[in-house]
Design goal:
heterodimer, A: 424 residues, mainly alpha, Serine Threonine Protein Phosphatase 5, Tetratricopeptide repeat, B: 399 residues, 23 helices, 0% strand, Tetratricopeptide repeat protein (chain A)
């Protein structure tokens, strides 16, 4: 009895000693943070609900996390609302303003976003994220000059994945390859171990025709990166080492089984190896995945032309033309197919159209046209001579350029033969 | 690639799911066109001959029958049992009668046990039915009973057991094609058509007029990129005297994909001339594929519109229409049609994915995110969706 009384006394005294209850709003913050970073949104949301019940709507951290969760689950307008509530605690909070601006931009409300971003900029001058957001807004409104200025500023302030990717892509979309190259190279200097960057750089160099340098970058990247696989494959294909190219493409097709482009490239490798059946099957699959791509139909036409199935070739070239009416090459091959089908007049019309559309003055069109005219005999030899002269002019200019469509010896030999024939 | 209409609908008995299907088909519209209009369900009706149906609604007052008395009469009871099962579709009463009759025969009549099993089967009591069939087979081996037993295994979702049963029996009765066809059907349903192929071929060796085998072989060759071979099979179907929209449609598709452009138009014309409305919707849908393949998106657009006139709930057609529209940069119309596609067929993932790509390109990320999640629910391994999901998350998760 006595002891119990003592204990009670002690307890009472303890209670009395305790200071007045402090509302510790922050004791759950760590737990909430943990839930958030491991993406356990369900538990986080439960905790937030509990916290709002305990403390009312003014729990700062809970609100912040709630806003982020809304954003990450795609409920952007709700997220914006949450952050706006947050702003009422402290109007001068630059971070919050920044987040709101970003949210608005993602939600497609660019004008309001710009206003908010401006406010954020007044509070802190040098924040790359704000510039980046402003740039995005201008870009979405198709005001490219202003967008470029802001992207550049963001890139100068901080070189990171977001900024260099954005600026690089921006230059690429404007076809300013040299500028894009400079951006990627500066970025690579600051992050020399970044594989993704190397792949981007490699693909860009490949597009600019600097194959050797591109290969160097692409090969240093691990073999699972899709961009580098495609790049290396196409380099190998250009160098006519088709088996190696196929190895790369096989790896790629395992990752992207529905990519029409990859199937198309595979087909052209087989075509290069003169294996027609697998080429046709691969092309058929490519058409199945993307029937709107004119290149695939064009290639299908080429393969059929090689197989001497001129009617099918005609159909595929026709399809390629309906999909892409400005392609002179399709018209040239259409002419060849038509000629083989004994429709000389339409073949000529097709070649004329090809010459009309051809901006780069491709010598092959002249050569093929000349051959067809000569095959016809005397009635068109006058015109053939004229075309042959054009061909000689164009060929002289373009002789030095790299061209893997046909071997130089073949062109030379044909040139000699036609020359002799016309003389006699 | 245009979809082949299956030239053959699998026989479906009146199972419980049929009702569900009926509701679904009323909404979505049947996709399958049958080359053989009579399903097994139809056979039940056919046995109730015209003479019986003329007698008015009720031929025998079933409720007033004393099953015990009836069971004592060996001949009448059998006829009555068949009547109850095939005409009245009253498995409960048939079960009563069969049970009494089995008792009366001292559990030694295989025929009654088989009927007992059938009645249980119709009532959905598969385990009981299995027992009855097994004991019936022990007494007297009948091919029909074996087939029914296999059907039970299929209904119990044990395809391997069913296949084993079929295989065991087809060795013992090598001239019975039902077993071969049965195995092939199960493999087809298990989505292993390459395994089904030899069984269809064997069936054709034994019975070279088997329509199901010819049609299935045709379809399989078509989907294996061998339209020329498929064409041979469909020609054979024509020889067998079938003249339906599906066959002409399939022949047209085969002609197109084997590059015989001069022939396919007339095939489709014939198909359209004998088709009903639902079939027309499908045929115009296939034609749209052909025009897309020919690069003529204008005509393809028209074809899809016609297809939708005949079947306003054709989700695939809506999807393709929207794709053609988005190629023409009519994005608002495309969005609307993708939405319609999603509404009219909730099991196709293509329109949802397409719509999410459209939203992503228009920088509407919250819509895009929720749509990608939907796609991944329907098709968790879709590589393009996975990639898009990563892209969207990258945008949304920047803090």
């Amino acid at each position: 009895m006595n002891q119990e009384g003592q204990v009670q006394q002690v307890q009472e005294s303890l209670i009395l000693k305790k200071p007045q209850r402090i509302i510790n709003r922050y004791k759950h913050n760590q737990l909430l943070y943990n839930y958030f970073v491991i993406r356990d949104f369900k538990s986080a949301q439960e905790l937030i609900e509990k916290l709002t019940q305990e403390h009312g709507d003014i729990h700062e951290y809970a609100n912040q996390i709630q806003g982020y969760i809304f954003k990450m689950t795609g409920q952007l307008s709700k997220s914006t609302e949450t952050f706006k509530k947050f702003l009422s605690f402290n109007e001068q909070d630059q971070e919050v303003l920044k987040t709101i601006a970003k949210n608005l931009q993602l939600d497609g409300r660019f004008k309001i976003s710009l206003d908010v971003a401006q406010k954020a900029l007044n509070l802190k001058k040098n924040d790359w994220e704000v510039f980046y957001t402003i740039g995005n807004c201008y870009y979405a409104q198709k005001d490219f000059d202003k967008a470029l200025i802001n992207y550049k500023r963001a890139f100068e302030l901080s070189i990171n994945e977001t900024t260099y990717n954005r600026l690089g892509k921006f230059y690429l979309s404007l076809e300013k390859y040299d500028e894009a190259l400079a951006v990627y190279k500066t970025a690579l200097n600051s992050q020399p171990q970044n594989n993704e960057l190397k792949a981007l750089l490699g693909v860009l160099l490949l597009r600019m025709g600097q194959t050797q340098e591109a290969k160097k970058y692409l090969e240093s990247v691990t073999a699972t990166d899709t961009k580098s696989l495609l790049g290396l494959g196409s380099i190998m294909q250009d160098q006519e080492s088709y088996d190696e190219a196929l190895v790369y493409y096989r790896k790629l097709i395992a990752i992207h089984p529905t990519s029409a482009q990859v199937w198309n490239n595979i087909a052209m490798c087989y075509y290069g190896k003169q294996e027609i059946l697998p080429a046709i099957i691969s092309l058929k699959r490519a058409i199945y995945y993307d029937p709107f791509e004119s290149t695939i139909h064009f290639n299908m036409g080429l393969v059929h032309l090689y197989e001497k199935q001129y009617m099918s070739a005609f159909h595929y070239f026709q399809t390629a033309i309906t999909l892409n009416p400005d392609d002179s090459q399709s018209y040239m091959y259409l002419g060849i197919a038509l000629n083989k089908l004994n429709d000389f007049q339409n073949a000529c019309r097709s070649f004329e159209r090809a010459l009309e559309l051809d901006k780069e003055k491709d010598y092959l069109i002249y050569l093929n046209y000349c051959i067809i005219l000569l095959q016809r005999g005397d009635e068109s030899s006058q015109y053939a001579q004229q075309i042959f002269r054009y061909f000689c002019d164009q060929y002289k200019e373009q002789e030095q350029h790299y061209d893997n469509r046909c071997k130089k010896e073949v062109v030379q030999e044909l040139k000699q033969q036609i020359y002799k024939y016309l003389k006699s | 690639m245009g979809r082949l209409q299956t030239g053959y609908a699998r026989p479906v008995t009146n199972r419980q799911e049929a009702q569900e299907n009926a509701v679904k088909t009323a909404r979505v519209g049947t996709r399958l066109g049958t080359a053989r209009p009579m399903t097994q369900g139809g056979r039940y009706i056919r046995l109730g001959t015209a003479s019986l149906q003329q007698m008015g609604d009720q031929f025998i007052m079933v409720d007033r029958l004393d099953m015990k008395k009836m069971a004592a009469k060996p001949v009448v009871s059998r006829v009555l049992c068949d009547y109850l099962i095939y005409v009245e579709h009253n498995p409960r009463k048939a079960l009563q009668l069969a049970a009494e009759a089995t008792q009366a025969s001292n559990y030694s009549d295989w025929w009654w046990k088989e009927r007992l099993g059938k009645a249980y089967f119709m009532l959905g009591l598969y385990r009981e039915a299995e027992k009855q069939f097994e004991s019936s087979i022990k007494m007297q081996e009948m091919i029909k009973t074996q087939l029914q037993l296999a059907k039970i295994y299929l209904r119990l979702d044990q395809p391997t057991t069913a296949i084993e049963l079929y295989k065991r029996n087809s060795e013992r009765y090598p001239h019975e094609i039902s077993y071969l066809i049965g195995i092939a059907r199960v493999y087809d349903q298990l989505n292993q058509p390459e395994k089904a192929l030899p069984y269809y071929k064997n069936t054709l060796i034994k019975d070279n007029c088997n329509i199901e085998a010819v049609a299935s072989l045709g379809a399989q060759h078509f989907y294996q990129d061998q339209p020329e071979t498929a064409l041979q099979f469909y020609k054979r179907l024509l020889q067998l005297g079938l003249y339906t929209a599906e066959i002409w449609n399939n022949i047209g598709l085969c002609c197109f994909y084997s590059g015989q452009y001069d022939l396919f138009y007339s095939c489709f014309e014939r198909a359209l001339s004998v088709a009903d409305e639902q079939q027309r919707a499908e045929i115009w849908y296939n034609l749209s594929h052909i025009f897309i393949n020919l690069g003529d998106s204008g005509t393809a657009y028209q074809c899809l519109k016609i297809s939708l006139c005949y079947d306003p709930h054709h989700g695939e057609a809506y999807n393709n229409l929207a794709v053609v529209q988005s190629k023409r940069k009519e994005f608002d119309k495309a969005k609307l049609n993708f939405q319609k596609a999603i509404e009219s067929n909730e099991f196709i993932y293509e329109p949802i994915y397409n719509l999410s790509v459209l939203h992503f390109n228009q920088q509407d990320y919250s819509q895009c995110y929720s749509l990608v999640q939907k796609t991944l629910k329907l098709f968790p391994d879709h590589s393009d969706s996975l990639e898009l999901n990563e892209k969207v998350l990258q945008v949304l998760q920047q803090i």
